[in-house]
Design a protein that fits this description.
Helix content: 10-25%
Strand content: 35-45%
Distance between the termini: 40 Å
Order of helices and strands: HHEEEEE
Radius of gyration: 19 Å
Largest sheet: 5 strands, antiparallel
Number of domains: 2
Structural class: alpha+beta
Strand order of the largest sheet: 4-3-2-1-5
Shape: elongated
Length: about 90
Amino acid sequence: MTRTERLASFEELTKLPGIKRASVFADELANTARLKFDHPLAGRPWHIDGVTDVPGFYHLSVAVPIGLDYYQSRMDYARFELVLFETEFERIQ
């Protein structure tokens, strides 16, 4: 099997539902979102970590600085995570 044939078979494989190339998947993971409902951290951009096993639901996370660490040398962050349906947030670029 030549290189061209392997690439053609890979392209056919990526046309199946649920199978994506790494570049497409990375673009989806690089997205950020804004929450559409009232939440203390709704004003911050949330990172879309990926999809769940249930269609339409996504893992979102945000890191919030909470102050200096014990040694006063760097900021500590609290990480918050949510699982939301796609209508509860909007993607921002």
